[in-house]
Amino acid sequence: MGQYFTNAEGEQTEIDVAELQEWYKKFVVECPSGTLFMHEFKRFFGVQDNLEAAEYIENMFRAFDKNGDNTIDFLEYVAALNLVLRGKLEHKLRWTFKVYDKDGNGCIDKPELLEIVESIYKLKKVCRSEVEVEERTPLLTPEEVVDRIFQLVDENGDGQLSLDEFIDGARKDKWVMKMLQMDVNPGGWIIEQRRKSALF
């Protein structure tokens, strides 16, 4: 028997009570104050000394901070875990769009996307299309990635990606999907942290 949790899209999701209790124990161990602060979030991803990468992590933090109080409380933590570990593709793409749309105007322009791609490059140091991997050609530059995404996804040619264009583009093209989802893999980090703290 589980508890129901309402996700960001307003849908009810069942979460096992034992799993919820495990998440709470780990949250309290990691965040004894009951809230996760920005500096702790950056430390989890190892970017506290990397200014460019830290900016991306700050955007991610703000996307998880639903009430805008500059902390992540347990409910926001559960919502984030639920999205990252169990979320549907469309929900993950909507969340990614929110992270990328830095000015919150409902569209992503080239400078916003370029800033994100540059930050992610600095975090991951890898970003190859499938063709490049097969042919062992050089990495695309962040500018080339952004230009190619806009060429493939900006259907109306207005120089901005709407949420619908973002989601449709990701669904239609495997390379675009990979590029639009190229994040620091919070799901991988969360799973790794859960493995490390299995004794709690």
From TrEMBL:
<dbReference type="GO" id="GO:0005509">
    <property type="term" value="F:calcium ion binding"/>
</dbReference>
<dbReference type="InterPro" id="IPR028846">
    <property type="entry name" value="Recoverin"/>
</dbReference>
<dbReference type="InterPro" id="IPR002048">
    <property type="entry name" value="EF_hand_dom"/>
</dbReference>
<dbReference type="GO" id="GO:0007601">
    <property type="term" value="P:visual perception"/>
</dbReference>
<keyword id="KW-0844">Vision</keyword>
<keyword id="KW-0106">Calcium</keyword>
<feature type="domain" description="EF-hand">
    <location>
        <begin position="52"/>
        <end position="87"/>
    </location>
</feature>
<keyword id="KW-0716">Sensory transduction</keyword>
<dbReference type="GO" id="GO:0008048">
    <property type="term" value="F:calcium sensitive guanylate cyclase activator activity"/>
</dbReference>
<keyword id="KW-0479">Metal-binding</keyword>
<protein>
    <recommendedName>
        <fullName>Guanylyl cyclase-activating protein 2</fullName>
    </recommendedName>
</protein>
<feature type="domain" description="EF-hand">
    <location>
        <begin position="141"/>
        <end position="176"/>
    </location>
</feature>
<keyword id="KW-0519">Myristate</keyword>
<dbReference type="GO" id="GO:0001917">
    <property type="term" value="C:photoreceptor inner segment"/>
</dbReference>
<feature type="domain" description="EF-hand">
    <location>
        <begin position="88"/>
        <end position="123"/>
    </location>
</feature>
<dbReference type="GO" id="GO:0120199">
    <property type="term" value="C:cone photoreceptor outer segment"/>
</dbReference>
<dbReference type="InterPro" id="IPR011992">
    <property type="entry name" value="EF-hand-dom_pair"/>
</dbReference>
<keyword id="KW-0449">Lipoprotein</keyword>
<keyword id="KW-0677">Repeat</keyword>
<dbReference type="Pfam" id="PF13499">
    <property type="entry name" value="EF-hand_7"/>
</dbReference>
<dbReference type="Pfam" id="PF00036">
    <property type="entry name" value="EF-hand_1"/>
</dbReference>
<dbReference type="InterPro" id="IPR018247">
    <property type="entry name" value="EF_Hand_1_Ca_BS"/>
</dbReference>
